[in-house]
Amino acid sequence: MAASFESSRVPFDADASPRGEGERRRSGLRRRARDRLMDRATRAYTPNEALEGVRDLETLMLFIDDDLRETGLALARVEQYLVRTLGVLERPDVRRRDVHALAADQEVLDHLDVLNETLESLRRRMARLAARLK
User: Fold this and answer.
1) Of 7, 44, 86, 113, most Cβ neighbours within 10 A?
2) If you compute the radius of gyration of the chain from its CA atoms, what whole number of angstroms results?
3) 3-state SS assignment for residue 47
4) Residues 6 or more apart whose Cβ sits within 8 Å of residue 123
5) What is the pLDDT of residues 79-111, one digit of tens each?
6) H or E stretch including 1?
7) Tens digits of per-residue pLDDT, 17-48?
8) What angle do CA 19, 21, 83 make, to 5 degrees?
9) What is the distance of C-alpha 74 from the center of its chain?
10) What is the pLDDT of residue 58?
11) Cα distance between residue 114 and residue 63, in whole Å
């Protein structure tokens, strides 16, 4: 698999507004951070000249991209738990069993463990990349 490692053609904007949505979709540019994280495995991007000549870049970037995706997925799962919790708390008929179910949810702790592991792995690999840059 020939990989090109790059920076996105669209600057990162976590607070991107929906204006211009049609233009971005037609052009293939994606602004949502989550979409961009997931796209790195399947989309070609403009090569980043600053990364040219970095030793063993292709393999390292594959691992970094994987860490980015896995960390993003873990964050999304934790966010789902938070949204469910908010939904229960905002209900006019909050029930003890629903609150208890959220409080006893061990799965969210598993997602936090994955988040911690993948984020730490990402940080280590980014440090490795930084050490290889000129």
Assistant:
1) 7
2) 19
3) strand
4) none
5) 999 999 999 999 999 999 999 999 999 999 999
6) none
7) 444 445 444 445 545 666 666 666 566 656 66
8) 85
9) 8
10) 77
11) 16
Question: For residue 88, what are its two tokens?
Answer: 């229960």
Over range 1-27, report the average pLDDT. Answer: 41
Q: Which residue has the tokens 């403009």?
A: 46
Rounded average pLDDT over 110-131: 95
Q: What gap in Å lies between CA 83 and CA 103, rounded to an integer?
A: 14
CB 23: neighbour CB atoms within 10 A?
A: 9
Three-state secondary-structure class, residue 106 = coil
Hey, what are 25's tokens? 């979709």
SS3 6: strand
Angle between helices 107-132 and 57-90 (to 10 degrees): 150
> How far apart (Å, rounded) are the C-alpha atoms in residues 1 and 18?
34
The single residue listed with the structure tokens 């691992």 is 63
- 3-class secondary structure, 58: helix
Contacts of 38 (CB under 8 A, 6+ apart): 69, 72
Residue 50: CA count within 13 A, CB half-sphere: 5
Classify residue 132 as exposed, middle or buried by CB count within 10 Å of its CB (0-12, 13-18, 19+).
middle
